[in-house]
Amino acid sequence: MNKKIKTDAVDHLFEAVLRLENKEECYSFFEDLCTVNELLSLSQRFEVAAMLRDHKTYLDIAEKTGASTATISRVNRSLNYGNDGYELVFSRLNKEA
């Protein structure tokens, strides 16, 4: 875990997110919390991660998501050398499917 982001404020935010019960509540909360561009950037990174896990090429990912190669590279680095947060969520999503 990155100790730079481990703060009381981030803990408070995560506690709030964990209280959300459905997609509609997520939309309401995140639309209030984030700008449209911030939310679209977060969702783009998540889509990039999913496509990288599916072994799509950078070119395919850039064309489908509009992400820059720099963004794709950063997400790829997180997938390979991060804290396994993406993998945790993807494995849980796959169990529900």
UniProtKB/TrEMBL annotation:
Coiled-coil annotated spans: none
Cross-referenced InterPro entries: Trp_repress, Trp_repressor/repl_initiator, TrpR-like_sf, YecD_YerC
GO molecular function: DNA-binding transcription factor activity; sequence-specific DNA binding
NCBIfam families (UniProt xref): yecD_yerC
Name assigned to this protein: TrpR YerC/YecD
